[in-house]
Write a structure and sequence with these properties.
The complex is a heterodimer. Chain A has two domains: 142 residues, D-Maltodextrin-Binding Protein, domain 2; 95 residues, Periplasmic binding protein-like II (D-Maltodextrin-Binding Protein, domain 2). Helices cover 39% and strands 20% of the residues of chain A. Chain A contains ten helices and eleven strands. In chain A, the strands form two sheets. A six-stranded mixed sheet of chain A has the order 2-1-3-10-4-11, with helices on both faces. In chain A, strands 7-6-8-5-9 form a five-stranded mixed sheet, with helices on both faces. In chain A, helix 1 runs antiparallel to helix 9 and helix 3 packs across helix 10. The longest helix of chain A has 15 residues. Chain A is globular. The model of chain A has no long low-confidence stretch (mean pLDDT 94). In chain B, strand 6 and strand 7 form a beta hairpin. Chain B starts with 14 loop residues before the first strand and ends in a 5-residue tail after the last helix. By secondary structure, chain B is α+β, with helices and mostly antiparallel strands. Chain B has a single domain, classed as PAS domain (Beta-Lactamase), CATH 3.30.450.20. Chain B is built from four helices and seven strands, in the order E-E-E-E-H-H-H-E-E-E-H. Classes of the chains: A alpha/beta, B alpha+beta. Chains A and B meet through helix 10 of A and strand 6, strand 7 and helix 4 of B.
């Protein structure tokens, strides 16, 4: 049975082909059959994790905690110099100029992306807003979050900063950023599961060397990554502890 | 290490008080009425060993505390202890985290320049191989209403 690779469902659709190219490269490197399975939702992916179908995962920080602490996954690499940040934005015409002007009952448009939602809700806490006293409107994509704001069906939208930057200029001109996170230490990580853990050192070595040959650089380019960086076990534990403090 | 605060570091008029800190440390604190607002979108992160000695700080910690990274590393976390904070709050913190549980509360922190800043703090024990090896503390922007509640409550806890 081939090993299974998956990617947190928050990846940009622009990088879909990039992950298939990456998987082909990876199989050649370690000489094993690996099937890339991309799940449509976080829940579908978590269901697959729970029945131990996954062997390699590019995980968001929220799920990484569960993968490492409960499912025995080990960290491999992260993208160097990149961190997950969130943006809280409003319709440009909104009367709200500061988060603290928001009141309970506000309509918050979000995606299912758990770490971005967490970071966004933390930025709404200064207004005494919590998931218990706002109306959460879950959208399938960040473009749909933006549309909720444009149609004035939501008062505030929570975006992955990278996804906000990728919105078309026409949409962005009609939005206004209230606050952007500057956390710097929360990011996605490539993790290896128990069945493939015996190849961990080899996998890590190949990944860290990807940018030194032309073929590897091309594969990274298709994912819009520059270079992988090593994650020590303690770095991973630190990020998980950090997520734990935020999820309170 | 932790030292008495020095008048030449203080900005503006100040009051003086000597605090008894954890570990039998006595420290002369100089404090003013100047508040530094918590910056939007940032987290202040630090780790300590099991005795509360700082082992890591992030850039936001350095910026908000007014100390350099070198001054903070190896100092007790109580370097930030403000005289307006009731000892009962920190007793509760230590009792909670030493049981392996998370602690959360609103804290008024003392800056090197004598000013202060309010935070919503969460402290969790770092458990490695079943043992608590230290603590991670993350501070975020508090709501003004919670700060106002704390301003009323804390003087009653001395």
């Amino acid at each position: 049975m081939p090993y299974q690779l998956t990617v947190s469902p928050d990846f940009s659709p622009d990088h879909l082909s990039g992950w298939y190219i990456f998987n082909t490269w990876l199989q050649r490197q370690i000489g094993e059959a690996i099937h890339l399975e991309l799940y449509n939702s976080f829940q579908a992916q978590r269901d697959a994790i729970h029945i131990d179908k996954i062997d390699l995962i590019y995980a968001n920080p929220f799920d990484a905690a569960m993968l490492v602490r409960e499912k025995g996954f080990l960290p491999l690499v992260k993208v160097q110099g990149v961190s997950d940040e969130a943006i809280v934005a409003v319709n440009k015409a909104s009367a709200i100029t500061d988060v603290t002007e928001l009141s309970p009952g506000s309509r918050i448009a979000v995606t299912e992306d758990p770490d971005v939602r967490l970071m966004g809700m933390i930025m709404l806490e200064p207004a005494d807003l919590t998931t218990d006293n706002v109306q959460i409107k879950v959208c399938d994509s960040y473009v749909l979050v933006a549309k909720q704001l444009l149609r004035e069906d939501a008062d505030v939208g929570i975006f992955l900063a990278e996804a906000y930057d990728d919105l078309s200029s026409i949409i962005k001109k009609q939005l206004r950023i209230l606050v952007q996170s500057q956390i710097g230490v929360i990011q996605h990580a490539l993790l290896v599961g128990p069945r493939l853990a015996h190849r961990r050192d080899e996998l890590r070595e190949s990944l860290l060397a990807m940018n030194v040959d032309e073929k590897g650089r091309d594969v990274l380019k298709n994912l819009s990554f520059d270079v992988w960086a090593n994650i020590e076990d303690e770095d991973m534990e630190f990020m998980i502890d950090l997520m734990d403090t935020l999820n309170t | 290490m932790i030292y008495d605060m020095k008048p030449e570091h203080i900005i503006g008029d100040y009051k003086e008080v000597t605090l008894d800190l954890y570990g039998g440390i006595r420290r002369t604190c100089l404090y003013t009425e100047t508040e530094t607002p918590y910056p939007d979108g940032k987290l202040i992160v630090s780790t300590t060993d099991i005795n509360g000695i700082i082992t890591q700080v992030n850039k936001s910690f350095v910026e908000m505390s007014g100390y350099t990274q070198e001054e903070l590393i190896n100092s007790p976390h109580s370097i930030l202890r403000h005289p307006d904070m009731p000892p009962a709050a920190f007793k509760d913190l230590w009792n909670t985290v030493s049981k392996g549980e998370k602690w959360q509360g609103y804290v008024k922190n003392l800056r090197k320049d004598g000013g202060y800043y309010w935070v919503k703090a969460t402290v969790i024990p770092n458990v490695r191989h079943g043992q608590v090896v230290g603590y991670t503390s993350v501070r975020r922007k508090p709501s003004r209403s919670k700060v106002e509640e704390s301003i009323k409550l804390y003087p009653t806890l001395f």
